[in-house]
Amino acid sequence: MKPGLIPPLDAAPLPGPVWLFQVLLVLTFFLHLVFMNLTLGGTLMAAISRLLSGGREGDHRTVLTSRLMRVNSYGIALTITTGIAPLLFIQVLYQQYFYTATILLGWIWFAFLVMLVVGYYAAYVFKLRFDRAPGKSTLGTLWLFLSALLFLLIAAVHVAVNLIHAQPGKWAAIETSPWSILGDPAYFPRLLHFVLAGFAFSGVVMAWWAVRRAAAGHEVELNGKLARSAWRWALWATVAQIVDGVVLLLVLPRHVLLGLMRGGAATMVPLTLAILLAIGLLMMLSRVTDPVRQRGTVTGTLAALALTIAVMAITRDQVRDLYLAAARAKFELMTAPQWGTFALFAVLLVAGLATVAYLVKRVLSSPATGSEAA
Amino acid sequence: MGYPIWDIAMGGSVLMAVVAVAHVIVAHFAVGGGLVIAVTETLAFRRNDGELRQLAKRSSLMLILVSTVFGAVSGVGIWVVAGLVAPAAISALIHNYVWGWAIEWVFFFVEIVCAIVYYDTWGKISKRAHLFVGWLYFVAAYLSLVIINGIITFMLTPGKWLSTHAFWDGFFNPTYFPSLLLRTGIAAIMASVFMVFPALKAAMAVRGHLLRYLGWWLVAGVLVSYGGYRWWEAVLPAEIKGLFLGASPALRQLATTRHFLLWALAATLVLGVLLLAVPRLARVVPAVVLMIAGFAFFAGFEWVREGVRKPFLIHDYMFSNGLLVSDIGAINDEGLLARAGWAAHDADDDPLSRGRQVFRAECSSCHTIDGYQGIRRLLPPDPDMTFGVLSTLSEMGDAYGELAPGQRIDMSSLDYPFMPPFVGSDEELEELAQYLNSLAASGGRLAEKGAGQ
Fold it and tell me: How many CB atoms are located within 10 Å of the residue A242 CB?
């Protein structure tokens, strides 16, 4: 008799309870999403803004591009760094499914590494060579579009891996043709979901930044224009997101949708909260006509958006488990917690975050004096 | 063995080597560069030396571009490639050392934040605050090496872990401290050979001063590396050491690589002394030669380290093809294709097809057909001998299977000490022999094509 296609569990037990890894996976994935939204949505937004402004000096869209790429030159590093932790925890929890999905994609999966390096360097080329030389924009705009296109392709690869690993029933067909995953009804709505979230988050962050600059008296008119422009990105992306969100729910396999609905408070609270937050966000976004004068709402919208991402990360994790429920029922995960090393990790995590907080505080409170500013 | 098999013409091990070597070079620069840059800025501060400060500043841009971009992505790349070519192996490592990796991630996160802040705040914050950021970067980067070194050395010398399966028993294994010393020296070498390039951008009048300064770092790195390497060799178990000292005729290549890496280190030392003595000779081409010498030593060491681990991925626990030592008996009883779901799925009923799938599941992690470690050219001329070799490999499995947990095998007693044993039923052994002989025969290529997947 031939064995099934789901590989056996690892011989070694999990070095901690499942719930702990799940909490860490969702938590670190949320952190990753925050930076990823800026990388994906921000770079796309920067490229389009640069195209529209033609790189004209003083144009608020040129400034928007410049600010987005300044943030992203570091934001991309943090996207990668914060992506490492969920990549680690997904390998612990979903090893059989995750590795299988990546192997079925083979070079397509490997290619994301190459695209990431090229996309990252392209962003740096723009920042170091073209950003400070407005006007000569065509080549600079091309570098930006290259970077944005590569990040979009990376997102497309990740969406494919995620859909494949959650559906062992499709593996045999994927082995024959990896591209058949594009025919999954959830594929494009899911990809669009990430792109739109990226636009919304980047738009609100840029508006928030511009509002703060304007409030401090820096280039009030320019920052006002920039804030309104970034706000429109966020507003229209959220309108589209609500339509896409409904589509995304409707194309879920029936057992997954029913599982969500019948999962009781555990699934319905995050899902309902996510829907309410999305509607609330739309209302907040549409109420603001002049972000500079409505600073409180801008800050509130940013907080609500971050909360929405966190709740969505929970729902996303639950959807994955519902997809995999039948397959995972055949395996019994053994655990042998290494509490001592986990405690060391927890202590070091807190210490690490405290160190970063102290670092930021010290840097902000130690401006260079005259002779040092060289 | 239950995973799908990624057919990659160049060989999965080659791709892994390319990504891993590129990563370790950059990762060690990230650590060593942290130390050298922090010391350089400190000296610049104390001596009020503007040129040293410029060297630290230019090097910090290099650190950002090389380390936070390529270093981070290639680090993820090791997981990605391992998951593609050896999923069971990386899964076993992660199951045992997930908290180790999680701790390393914390240090890496702090390291990246510090690198960004350090580069972005030159001249914007007080010098003392900037120095603080630089030193914090180095501490975080070095601590990430302290952690990852435990996982890397565990794979070669798991020590007491084999019987206890306890985290720290595997972590502080026999080669942990020698390897840490060696890698500390390597980090200093990598920092020096990279930072020569920003130093060359300085005006001619001060270039000698900067290059001589880096020469001291380079010589110190070479000496520390040499001490660490010798210590590392000394603590290796005799049967592992024997492999690269030429005990196995089939592994002479490893002995050659060992000579090569030591000569490369000697060449790096000579170039370092030249840098100290006549820094004015340094130009771009000599700097590239220096860099190649440093890389050659490091890559040579990594090659030897990986080579002497053969045939294991985790010594005495898991073979390089993902086979657990403890599974040998069960797979021999049940048959390989009863366990390897994807290979069984891709197999037709004819023996050649089944033999090909046995090859893919059991051999393709090291052997391609015609590329790296190409099996076709390794086959014996006499088809009967193929069966004989496989039978010998199968008998090796019996020898491994008789070991008690934690007991080590006498490698010199094995005919093919660098290969995992053959596991599977008698029929599968015959089918594999038939498939391999079909490759060797004139119609071999046709048989390969006709066998489907």
Answer: 14
DSSP sequence for B156-210: H--TTHHHH--HHHHHT-TTHHHHHHHHHHHHHHHHHHHHHHHHHTS-HHHHHHH
Is B94 close to A95, i.e. CB distance below 8 A?
yes
pLDDT at B240: 79
**Per-chain mean pLDDT for chain A:** 92
On the question of pLDDT at A136 being above 80, the answer is: no
Q: Are A163 and A184 in contact (CB under 8 A)?
A: yes
Q: How far apart are CA A117 and CA B74, in angstroms?
A: 9
Interface test with A, best of B68, B111, B139, B328 (most A CBs within 10 A): B68
pLDDT in tens, B328-362: 999 999 999 998 889 988 888 899 999 999 999 99
Q: Tell me: the pLDDT tens digits for A280-314?
A: 999 999 999 899 899 999 999 999 999 999 999 99
Asked whether the predicted pLDDT for residue B451 surpasses 50, the reply is: no
Are A124 and B5 an interchain contact pair (Cβ–Cβ within 8 Å)? no
Domains of chain A by start residue, with CATH: 1-179 (no CATH), 185-329 (1.20.120)
B91 touches chain A (CB under 8 A): yes
3-state secondary structure B292-317: HHHHHHHHHHHHHHHHHCCCEEECCC
- Chain A closest CA to B9's CA: distance in Å? 12
- Coil/strand/helix, residue B324: strand
DSSP per residue, A271-284: HHHHHHHHHHHHHH
Say if residues A71 and A42 touch (Cβ distance below 8 Å). yes
Query: Would you say B351 and B358 are in contact if contact means Cβ atoms under 8 Å apart?
Result: no
Answer whether B345 touches A (CB < 8 Å): yes
Of A189-203, A286-300, B213-227, minimum mean pLDDT range: A286-300
Residues 6+ apart with CB under 8 A from A18: A93, A333, A335
User: A98: burial class by Cβ within 10 Å (0-12, 13-18, 19+)?
Assistant: buried
Give the count of alpha carbons within 13 A of A373, CB side only. 6
- In order of their start, the domains of chain B are 12-309 (1.20.1630), 325-450 (no CATH)
Q: What is the DSSP letter of A241?
A: H
Q: CA-CA distance, B92 to B101, in Å (whole number)?
A: 13
What was the pLDDT predicted at B400?
A: 87
The one-letter code for the residue type at A109 is W
Task: Write down the pLDDT at residue A2.
Answer: 58
